[in-house]
Amino acid sequence: xxxxxxxxxxGTRAISILVALIFCFLLDKFMQGADKxxxxxxxxxxxxxxxxxxxxxLINGITGQFSIGHAAFYQIGAYTGAVLAANxxxxxxxxxxxxxxxxxxxxxAIAAGLAGLVVGIPSLRLKGDYLAVVTLGIGEIVxxxxxxxxxxxxxxxxxxxxxxxxxxxxxxAITCIAVCRNLLKSAHGLAFLAVREDEVASAxxxxxxxxxxxxxxxxxxxxAGAAGALYAHTKAFVSPPDFSMDVxxxxxxxxxxxxxxxxxxTTIAAVVLFLIPEKxxxxxxxxxxxxxxxxxxxxxxxxxxxxIQESFHGAGSVRLARNIGSVGSGAVVAFIMAKLLVMVxxxxxxxxxxxxxxxxxxxxxxxxxxxxxxxxxxxxEFSWSWVQKLLGKKxxxxxxxx
Amino acid sequence: MSDLISLNLAGLxxxxxxxxxxxxxxxxxxxxxxxxxxxxxxxxxKLINFAHGEVxxxxxxxxxxxxxxxxxxxxxxxxxxxxxxxxxxxxxxMLVSGVSGFIIERFAYRPIRNHxxxxxxxTAIGLSLLLQYGGQAFLLExxxxxxxxxxxxxxxxxxxTPKKADASLIEQAAKIxxxxxxxxxxFDEQMKNxxxxxxxxxxxxRLNKVLATAIAKRDDLKNQADTSSVTIRLPKGKLIMLATxxxxxxxxxxxxxKTRMGRAMRAVSVDFNASSLMGINLNTVITFTFILxxxxxxxxxxxxSTFQSAPIDPFSGTAPGVKAFVAAVLGGIGNIxxxxxxxxxxxxxxxxxxxxxxxxxxDAIAFVILIAVLLFKPGGLLGSNKVEKV
Lengths: 402, 390
Fold this sequence. Notes:
Chain A is mainly α.
């Protein structure tokens, strides 16, 4: 870094913000229309899940604290938005919906951030497994309280004003990604990474462990809360099952699949993992032999891939060919076994295909841990130098390994 | 939050407290069997086996299918069970759980044993989800099932009455009885002249009201007499359950403290690497620990679904699993007597919450206890607060 150029610094930021705003605006305009209501719903939820996953990635991936109760903060935000819109701010929600939506996201973020602070300060003293269990417990406690409070609609849920805005949702997702990315480029961000890599060593280097962990937890929770408030208004209804343990696990799977620590990976995984179960909702009934055959195929592929990982030390291209070969043979076995098993009378019972939404997530998690525990992207990020390298140019400078 | 905070002490019925404590103790005995699995696996591998609750769930399915095979299924012919039925169900549940514990360890945990701990934790979560939702797809379409109470021939209770009912109240109730009888007779006489019960003449209506007030007065006194007494009912089945649990725990104690394999387990839990240098086969010890824990969970599952009549579905392992885990942490995870103590406390705590009128919060109490323990005494009640070495 030679000299600080304020004009360039400011210009880059102003242009980025402008581009983001225009992009969100165009996206919103493009998705208008009565015939696109389902697409709009899908896109809103995808944006919300990107926010959730990237904010959890800040806690789990970047700071290395293993939280599996992210849905609690999502729920706190959603209920804050829903309750306020139904009581104190109903007039504002009716007259100026967009302004209210912005405020609602803000309130949701504040509420969830405060909750994150209250939860984080004592529990972040715990390590690894224990922190996981405590966050899991907090997720459950929040759901149980919502289920038993009259003012929160008990198990039936709460309805609230319906305000859809792809503009705000995508803006929130982009803000979340930008905050995390910029954090990583700053000196503070390096402290976060240091905590992930080695707590003792970073404490010895003068990093305030508790402050870093709590900061990450509060920022992550606040984004989840904002996403929750937007979700409440997108769906116009909140009920406890929307924030169950399964949702926490879904978000966790997104982070783990994308690569713990990689914002790019998490974003892509969030969109993919949200859309796959959503599309699986309308799967037809299948015969019991088919999923069993597929399961056998997956096992064959995993066993072959692990054998290659363990024992093969050859050229990259040969390795890639073998990997593709294993996946292919797994697919062939799956196809043949599915066809064969369906002929057996015991496996001809009908099963609702939609029931396989969660098993797919679970199998993804287990297989991923067996084959690539660091996630698909590992710690890598998308960057322009990476694109240049793909196009055959040499990278201009070495980046900080993120 | 108002209804959460306003604890009404006057509304508590202290005469039912002893019964609830006994129920809690019996429930805690089952949690103890499950908690032992968590604590032993943690002791050896330092891994929270999230799939342990699902092993429990599979065990209860094993017990249920065994009862179906013996003719207690839907449309089955069998009428009443005997101790042989119960024993066969217990063995089947232990077998199913043991085999599933073995498979989980061999094919999911062993391949990633050298990866970072978070990887095994995520695998455990993934397995737990897979078994729950896979069960929903494959096990009887995930519908709620239950083991019929016909398998249990020991359904009658031992009744203890530490405090007798207030004699004066009973006397008063007895004094009112002739009054009730008279009113009943008068009303019956009048009924002969009436068209039907629902179209009474003014005279019949008056007699009817007199009868109703007399009955209400007597029942009120009887209720007061009942609540003034303290009764404890102990179903014989649950006593057998308690005896079985105690026998299993004695067996476990013998296994861990007196055999070569138990000594190897203790060695591994003290120092993983050093014990392998001393010639202990780690794979054998770990597999054995998993099977042992799973078998105990299976026994617990059979008793939970038979004697506590808990419904069975693919998600029914989660709640007992979580509570048993909390029990293990409460007692000090990795500590075998601690797990038993913690589990008994958990069972009692859960019944006390129900007794205080917050039965909808009975699943939350586990997490509240867990968080409190981790914040104030992370080592647990009987565990040691180890300082982490750099």
